[in-house]
Amino acid sequence: MKMTIRSSRWIPASLALVPFTALWLGGCGSGKKVDYSTEVKPILNKHCISCHGGVKQSGGFSVLFREEALGVTKSGKPAIVPGDASASEFIRRLHTKDPKERMPLKAAPLSSEEIDILTRWVEQGAEWGEHWAYVPPKPPAAGATIDQFINDKLDDENLDPAPQADPQTLLRRLSLDIIGLPPSEARTAAFSKNFSEETYANMVDSLLASPQFGEKWASMWLDLARYADTKGYEKDSRRDFWRYRDWVIQAFNKDMPFNEFTVDQLAGDLLPNPTQEQYIATAFHRNTMNNDEGGTQDEEFRTAAIIDRVNTTMEVWQGTTIACVQCHAHPYDPFHFEDYYKLMAFLNNTRDEDTPGEYPRLRFYDSLQRTEVDAVSKWVAQYGNASQVKDTEDFLRALEPKVHAHDADQFINGELADTKYISIRNGGSCRMKNVPLNEATTLLLRYWSGGGRLEIRSDSLKGPVVANIELPKGNSVLPVALKPLAGRHDLFFIFRNPAIDPMHSVAGVEWMAFRHDLPGKGQPGYKEMETKFMQLVNAYPDGLPIMVENTPDLFRPTYVFERGNWLVHGPQVQPATPGSLNPFPEGAPRNRLGLAQWITDPKNPLTSRVMVNRLWEQLFGIGLVETLEDFGTQGFAPSHPELLDYLAYQFVHKHKWSVKSMLREIVLSSAYRRDSKSSPELQEKDPANRLLARGPRFRLSAEQVRDQALAVSGLLNLTMSGPAVMPWQPEGVWMTVYSGDSWKTSENGNQHRRGVYTFLRRTSPYPSAITFDGSSREVCLQRRIRTNTPLQALTTLNDPVFMEAARTLAERMGKDGGSNAKACIKRGYQLAMNKDITDAKTAVLEKLYRQALEQYQKDPAAADSLNMRQFPEKEKAHLAALTIVANALLNLDEFLTKS
User: Is 796 within 8 Å of 729 (Cβ atoms)?
Assistant: First the structure.
């Protein structure tokens, strides 16, 4: 609604006041208090905010923040006068008939009802009520339950709830929801035989205790964490991140409280005496993409990673679309432009710098190396102090802090090769600017060379020599003795080797670290300990990119980016959280740990709501707030606001952030256990089941579709943990340009492991997973939008993974049913669907069997195409026909759907 306010266009009060007042009086008969959040804000968002909001403020007028809406416009006067609608230009422009002045400009006028709401709102004082999601949930009434909130709403709509689902359907639903797999036959038999409330509760507890629980729920979290097995961007080369994935699985299995789960991932490294597991957890924010392409600027993509971390943090834990605030104030929600960079300041002070090595990396020493690390630590403790012990252990843990080659400048007869490595020819030099030396005695130089000499001078090319050393041939980390210098200095590196081709470089350098000698120099055994230290530095154990905070010497300031451009810096900002949400915890540090404590503060209005809504969506197929990613004013309103607040409050205060305990309460509710069958009345009133009169019914996730097929066929390998595996995928899907990497199908049953372990390449995700709406994970994905396409049917009908599952299921059917086709079909349906088949379905599948059998009897070669060569000739046609039936079973809507 464009409102350009010019004093010269105002109608004189003597002419305008009487008719305008009459208009206002005619529409304001109701004395009902206007609610800003539910009545006013939707009108402003729909009609006004595109021209008068965070992006655009026509006439100097904005309705995004109260202080702006009540402030002086370009006309020199406020557009809204609280308590006086007749004096408010904002209201006059809604009533006027002049098309040049009437708002919205060049758009349909507001309805009389909308104008009445806005007029009464201004007259009542233009109060700026808070959006529901930014108000902390209140304690529920004593005795409140999930079913109470749902049944009250059904009563309001004159709807009766569906009855409870039958035991077999209920068990399948429960098993798929809690562990992501169909129930075993033994579980089904025991559950159905003695079904009762107690049996049901015991089954819930049993499934929650299953190690497969963590695998199912990790799949949800890994979408949020943008977990992948490659770096992304053009090269998209491999990375070993599987230890983070395993940490997530273990955290869910251990029922780690969600507040601890949050803190460990955002700031585990900043906790007192962090464990190795807490360092692994910080890989959450190292899942950002890393650009190894030659010629790219590392700082640009380091900044891109930080921006991604800001956006992801606010999306995952606050359900807030913050990305647009990088360039301007939020168009709809109360977040200022500067808020974005204050949040960035929490995350912008880490050691990672988009280097090919993805430093810092947590080093996983083997047992012998671990013994050496302990020996070095013991030596330092004997001859040094606690600070030196910590410094040594921290350095050996991740080789930080270090300075990277991309910081070099002032190259003479050399270059920054590939924009990543120092490369200097004979007699050439480069500068490392403003290095914090602090009387360091050793430079650890990660280099490669065919031999030569290195000279280092301070402050200029003709400055004092601080190091002069022969460069041995090799590729390693070299200790270089330094003349101690206090404070910061420019260092000039000069490389010489007149014997080599003038166009060849003397050496390449990846990084350097400035260290002090180990304590105890001169003591017996010192040289041996120094050698052990360097052997550990030069070891290449497995590693995992983690978060490590900058030391004070390497502190990185954060600046506002003008119009979101990372190259154009505005004023410097300090870490702070948005003023529209809960206060920053008193005494909390202004770093990632403080940010995590703010997020998990019980006063935070969003964290618990967002998480319980996500759990609800996993169980019911749609969240109480459908837009999991947006709890702001443009997101969907909750279908059951009181229920959402009840769950959020209970999650924190009753369940103490326990995900398992929260899930248990939900699945024990009557609402969860209802039959999913609909009725004409329900279809008309509530086709999407937002009122929850019936049970959930929706298609399984990409992982579950494949896992279930493997499970019912008997192929599923339940081995947990470890590096990613490669199930069968079509040839030619991978087109690696640089590495020559290829998809090598795993063997020895590993190709049949659960989908959570499937290798995920960002530029080429696993085909069947992406067909069923899986994520490529370049960025955080809050919810998978379920699609229904022919490609999905083509996949489950023809993909060799599903054909192998069908053939193996057919073998199970034949083993139990023998040559009796009907018995085989009944057995196959029982294995697939966890219940007995109806006569009508049996007849249809028998017909399919007979048609297939006839074909394969006439054409034995066709049977061989289904991998029947290993079976006796007389059994081939029968098993091939059963395979076609099994294939049909694995493609039934009821098989691919949780009901």
Answer: no
Name the burial class of residue 108, with classes exposed (0-12), middle (13-18) and buried (19+) by CB atoms within 10 angstroms of its CB: exposed
- Give Cα 98 to chain centroid, integer Å: 51
Nearest to 171 by CA among 152, 185, 151: 185
Inter-helix orientation angle 197-208/167-178, to 10°: 20
SS3 content of the chain, % helix, strand, coil (to 5): 45, 15, 40
Q: Is there a contact between 659 and 258 (Cβ–Cβ < 8 Å)?
A: yes
Supply φ then ψ for residue 224, to 5 degrees.
Answer: -70, -40
Strand extents, DSSP E, 520-659: 542-545, 558-561, 569-573
Report CA torsion sign: 480, 485, 491, 493.
negative
Region of poorest pLDDT, from 19-33, 355-369, 506-520, 701-715: 19-33
CB 606 within 8 A of CB 133: yes
User: Over the range 853-886, which residues count as b (16 or more CB within 10 Å of their CB) and which as e?
Assistant: beebeeeeebbeebbbeebeeeebbbbbbbbbbb
- How buried is 344 (Cβ within 10 angstroms: 0-12 exposed, 13-18 middle, 19+ buried)? buried
Angle of the 592-599 helix axis to the 337-347 helix axis, nearest 10: 120
At residue 658 the predicted structure's pLDDT band, cuts being 50, 70 and 90, is very high
Model confidence pLDDT, tens digit, residues 852-895: 999 999 888 888 888 777 777 778 899 999 999 999 999 999 99
Of 13, 148, 172, the residue nearest 87 (C-alpha): 13
Burial of 158 (0-12, 13-18, 19+ CB in 10 A): exposed
- Residue 795, by phi and psi: left (phi above 0), alpha (psi -120 to 50) or beta? alpha
Are the CB atoms for 3 and 90 separated by under 8 Å? yes
pTM surpassing 0.90? Answer: yes
CA distances from 169 to 188, 193, 217, 258, 401 (A): 10, 14, 21, 30, 57
Beta pairing class for 442-449 and 558-561:
unpaired
Closest CA to 640 of 123, 128, 300, 145: 145
Helix (H, G, I), strand (E, B) or coil at 605: coil
Which two structure tokens, joined as six digits, stand for 727? 């199930």
What is d(CA 439, CA 421) in angstroms, rounded to the nearest whole number? 26
Q: Which two tokens stand for residue 588?
A: 């909390």
Q: Is 286 exposed, middle or buried (0-12, 13-18, 19+ CB in 10 A)?
A: buried
* DSSP string covering 644-712: HHHHHHHHHHTSTT-HHHHHHHHHTSHHHHB-----HHHHHH-TT-SS-SS---EEPPHHHHHHHHHHH
Statement: residue 779 has pLDDT above 50: yes
Spell out a b/e string for 55-64, using b for 16 or more CB atoms within 10 Å of the CB, else e: bebbbbbbbb
Q: How far is CA 203 from CA 194, 195, 696, 861, in A?
A: 11, 10, 19, 47
| Three-state secondary structure readout of 418-470 | CCCEEEEEEEEEEEEEEEECCCCCEEEEEEEECCEEEEEEECCCCCCEEEEEE
- At 30, is the pLDDT very low, low, confident or very high (cuts 50, 70, 90)? low
Q: Which residues contact 573 (CB under 8 A, 6 or more apart)?
A: 338, 341, 342, 344, 345, 558, 559, 560
